[in-house]
């Protein structure tokens, strides 16, 4: 069996930074460190940080007084920041700088008096954070059909922002529908979709040309990982999202001679290795890494944690 690894795949700069914030906080302040929500959407990452003394909570009410608290990479609503400030909690904010950029852009559009539309998936923490960061109502749009249902008068000055981990192609269609509907509209086109999401989506398209099956390593609750699996399926390659090698079903590979592997931005490489090991237990494999775009983006840590 030939195995091709998509390039780039796996950890992005925002995920590396978020995990490092928890690790450095544990080193500097000692355990426990409280983390609001999974730092990134990956059980393996969360369990390893738990092993080092991190405690994960969904609500700040679960954090004891004065405990060091980290906000996850996905960002939080202002109400969460305000609650932490009211309780005087020492906070380290691991919100990805590219998510914060979208928050700031949304605030600027509202300040200009525009009605704000967020293109994103309901229920994802990033969407809840972004909706809760902008001081004003936000209309959430998830599809071209949702655009048709917007009741805002079509001459209203509007602006849109997007979730960072969307499908580039679906988002283009939604933006086109918005532009067709509203006369006075501003927005970043697809630039709010982060570099890591765009690169992993274009890499999975390249991968799909060479393989019969695509395995996307990532968590079921990871938005960007789900988009990678969807793209594989859309281009006609059987594609499966798996957390690790234990979820590999040999039946998927019955007629396959070439298997492609990629990984979501929150999935560590050790889980890709685990999937390759699971493939080896089925039969001999030859692994090659595809050429792809090189990434060398790094984000600075919060000042309190950067090395002296
Ligand atoms: O899987 P993630 O934790 O987040 P989503 O793709 O589910 O939003 O990956 C990190 C991305 C961010 C923000
Ligand atoms: Fe930041 Fe993009 Fe990574 Fe999310 S996927 S943490 S927005 S770089």
Summarize the structure.
It contains ten helices and 13 strands.
Count of extended strands:
13
What's the helix-strand series? EHEHEEHEHEHEHEHEHEHEEHE
Multimeric organization: single chain
User: Helicity level, as a percent range?
Assistant: 25-40%
Structural class of the helices, strands and pairings?
Answer: alpha/beta
Largest sheet: 5 strands, parallel
Q: What is the CA-CA span between the terminal residues?
A: 49 Å
- What is the total number of structural domains? 3
CATH topology of the largest domain: Cobalt-precorrin-4 Transmethylase, domain 1
Task: Tell the overall outline.
Answer: flat
Cα Rg: 21 Å
CATH architecture group name of the largest domain: 3-Layer(aba) Sandwich
Per DSSP, the total helix count is: 10
Query: Which percent band covers the strand fraction?
Result: 15-25%
Write structural notes for this entry.
Helix 8 (195-208) runs parallel beside helix 9 (223-234). This protein has three domains: 2-11 and 195-289, 4-hydroxy-3-methylbut-2-enyl diphosphate reductase, catalytic domain (Cobalt-precorrin-4 Transmethylase, domain 1, 3-Layer(aba) Sandwich), CATH 3.40.1010.20; 13-96 and 300-306, Rossmann fold; 98-192, 4-hydroxy-3-methylbut-2-enyl diphosphate reductase, catalytic domain (Cobalt-precorrin-4 Transmethylase, domain 1, 3-Layer(aba) Sandwich), CATH 3.40.1010.20. With 308 residues, the protein is an alpha/beta fold. The protein has ten helices and 13 strands. The mean pLDDT is 97. The N and C termini lie far apart (49 Å). The protein is flat. The protein has a five-stranded parallel beta sheet. Strands 3-2-4-5 form a four-stranded parallel beta sheet. The protein has a four-stranded parallel beta sheet with strand order 7-6-8-9, with helices on both faces. Iron/sulfur cluster is lined by residues 12-15, 73, 96, 98-99, 164-165, 194, 196-197, 224, 265.
């Amino acid at each position: 069996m030939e195995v091709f690894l998509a390039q780039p795949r796996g950890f992005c700069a925002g995920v590396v930074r978020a995990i490092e914030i928890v690790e450095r906080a544990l080193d500097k302040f000692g355990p426990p460190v409280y983390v609001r929500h999974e730092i990134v959407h990956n059980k393996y990452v969360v369990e390893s940080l738990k092993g080092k003394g991190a405690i994960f909570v969904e609500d700040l009410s679960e954090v004891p007084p004065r405990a060091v608290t980290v906000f996850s990479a996905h960002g939080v609503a202002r109400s969460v920041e305000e609650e932490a400030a009211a309780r005087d909690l020492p906070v380290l904010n691991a919100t990805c700088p590219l998510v914060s950029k979208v928050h700031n852009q949304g605030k600027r559009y509202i300040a200009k008096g525009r009605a704000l539309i967020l293109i994103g998936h309901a229920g994802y923490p990033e969407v809840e954070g972004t909706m809760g960061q902008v001081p004003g109502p936000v209309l959430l749009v998830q599809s071209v059909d949702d655009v048709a249902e917007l009741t805002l008068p079509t001459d209203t000055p509007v602006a849109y922002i997007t979730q960072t981990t969307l499908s580039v192609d679906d988002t283009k269609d939604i933006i086109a529908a918005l532009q067709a509907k509203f006369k006075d509209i501003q927005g970043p086109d697809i630039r709010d979709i982060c570099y890591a999401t765009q690169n992993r989506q274009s890499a999975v398209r390249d991968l799909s040309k060479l393989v019969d099956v695509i395995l996307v390593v990532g968590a079921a609750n990871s938005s960007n990982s789900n988009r990678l699996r969807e793209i594989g399926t859309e281009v006609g390659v059987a594609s499966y999202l798996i957390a690790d090698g234990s979820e590999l079903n040999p039946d998927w590979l019955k007629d396959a001679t070439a298997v492609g592997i990629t990984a979501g931005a929150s999935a560590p490489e050790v889980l890709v290795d685990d999937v390759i090991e699971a493939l080896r237990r089925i039969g001999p494999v030859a692994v090659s890494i595809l050429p792809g775009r090189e990434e060398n983006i790094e984000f600075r840590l919060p000042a309190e944690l950067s090395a002296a």
